[in-house]
Write a structure and sequence with these properties.
By secondary structure, the protein is of the alpha/beta class. The chain has eleven helices and nine strands. Helix 6 links the parallel strand 5 and strand 6.
Length: about 300
């Protein structure tokens, strides 16, 4: 009889602890408090909830607990729009993530891999223009993609050509505390930069605080997997991270990647930068946007 009562009391106590834990987790998921990590929204992500105006979307995102944004096309926006967005972010206390260095509007077959002097000068000119754009939104990071393979040159010559282009770019960016982050991609095998070790080695060779690694976890999952270990190996040269579940490139929890564990690992390592939400969403309309917020609350619930 005593044993039966003990087992019953133990079961009830366990159920009580589980219920309290579940209630606590539900509260964390439903809150609008800031997240543990700095997830960066992008234009259009909350258009159904806040309207098409990007500033209104930023205000909505802030109300939902987000404290950062990224905008790949920021350099293509009119100067007055750049200023307006930057001012709104300053008032909200939101941090700017990456914008893309828009030097690559030339034909796709030309790239920094080629060693073409005209292409390099266009790249450096864009770096100078990026300095002014960055000041308007208090930016730190600028995405750089070296481009496609130059099939007429061996691999190592192409690597050297990229390094020779990146070093003078760093001389432009360093005085302004700006960092170009090199992104390895999975979109096509024609792209030169595709892997963690390759990007890490290139950053080491450039040897500048203004040249770091943009670790897009969606692309790296497709190209090589082993995300947490590769983050650790590349940590010294890692400047920025982006998010996207695989397959599908949607929000965390929609694919095979355990983002809750990844986010916990980054938090424990002391990552203070922005994690760009460079992905779509699996749902539609306002309901899809609410599901996206809930997905981030669940993945961020690791403390």
């Amino acid at each position: 009889m005593q044993r039966r009562n003990f087992m019953r009391q133990t079961a009830l106590a366990g159920a009580g602890i589980f219920a309290a834990s579940a209630a606590k987790a539900t509260k964390r998921i439903q809150t609008n408090e800031p997240f543990h990590l700095n997830y960066g929204v992008h234009d259009g992500m909350f258009a159904n909830s806040a309207g098409k105006d990007f500033v209104d979307q930023l205000k909505f995102a802030h109300d939902m607990g987000f404290r950062a944004m990224e905008d790949n096309g920021f350099m293509d926006r009119p100067v007055d729009e750049q200023t307006r967005i930057g001012n709104a972010m300053a008032k909200l206390g939101m941090k700017m993530g990456v914008f893309v260095l828009n030097f690559d509007h030339w034909p796709v077959h030309t790239s920094l891999c080629s060693g073409d002097k005209e292409w390099r000068e266009k790249f450096l000119k864009a770096c100078r223009e990026a300095v002014d754009a960055a000041k308007r939104c208090n930016a730190t990071w600028i995405t750089v993609v070296p481009g496609n393979y130059e099939r007429s040159l061996p691999f190592d010559y192409q690597t050297a050509n990229i390094i020779e282009a990146l070093r003078p770019a760093c001389e432009i960016l360093e005085p302004h505390n700006l960092v170009m982050v090199l992104e390895a991609l999975s979109d096509t095998p024609d792209l030169f930069l595709r892997h963690s070790d390759q990007t890490f080695a290139m950053c080491k060779a450039v040897n500048s605080p203004s040249c770091k690694f943009l670790f897009d976890m969606y692309h790296m999952q497709r190209n090589e997997g082993n995300i947490i270990n590769n983050i650790d190996k590349a940590w010294d040269e890692l400047g920025y991270l982006q998010i996207g579940d695989n397959p599908g490139r949607k929000e965390p929890g929609t694919g095979e990647m355990n983002y809750k564990n990844i986010f916990k690992h980054l938090y424990q390592k002391g990552y203070k930068g922005v994690l760009g939400m460079e992905h779509g969403m699996i749902g539609q309309g306002k309901e899809g946007e609410q599901a996206l917020i809930k997905a981030y609350r669940e993945a961020d619930d690791f403390v």
